[in-house]
Design goal:
It is a single chain. The protein is mostly helical and 88 residues long. The protein is built from four helices and no strands. The longest helix has 32 residues. The N terminus is likely disordered.
Length: 88
């Protein structure tokens, strides 16, 4: 990696993408809760005021996987409800 290359900017972009994918438009507070940090700290990471810790970046794939599993279970439950509501 070149000395001038800033991976924190790429990390901030990934953090925003993951946050929006997980929680929608108002993603910063729920993500902060899941990461056990303050929403203010999340905003500082996004602005580039603070470096995003490796532990945070490492936690993102797990948060995404957990969300996928939750959504699969929710989708299955909705499908069962739809089947029960169909006549005959």
């Amino acid at each position: 990696m070149d000395e001038g290359e800033n991976t924190d900017d790429g990390n901030a972009k990934r953090l925003v993408e993951v946050g929006r994918a997980l929680y929608g438009r108002d993603w910063q507070t729920p993500l902060a809760v899941d990461l056990d940090v303050t929403p203010r700290l999340v905003r500082m990471w996004v602005r580039g005021d603070r470096r995003i810790p490796d532990r945070v970046m490492s936690a993102l794939p797990d948060l995404l996987s957990e969300a996928v599993e939750r959504r699969r279970a929710e989708a299955e439950q909705m499908e069962q409800m739809a089947r029960m509501m169909r006549p005959g």
